[in-house]
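Deliverable D4.2, example record:
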Amino acid sequence: MSRVGFISLVSFACFGIPAQAQTIPRYDVESYCQQVADVSGGSAMIRNGCMDMEQQAYDVLKPVWSQLSGTSRNYCDEVARVSGGSYSILQGCIEMETDAARSPRSFEY
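Output generated by the structure prediction step:
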């Protein structure tokens, strides 16, 4: 590999990954909401309500995602993916992480 090619590869690895991490995750919301609806007997009302909740959560998170700490983004993305990928769960996790960071606890003897 040429020196220029190597430098390009290293630059991409160093600078390309953080940019991707700052992009809000992509979840298959339609499949997730269908799974939620299927648990309740295939209700169209539940599916539509789920879709609305997911859209609202996504709309709240998208403009602030890159401003959140990388630790919170990564942790909450993992939590949200356990259920199949949910922006509502992601938003709830981010809110709890943010609140916890603002109110650190101490142990008293």
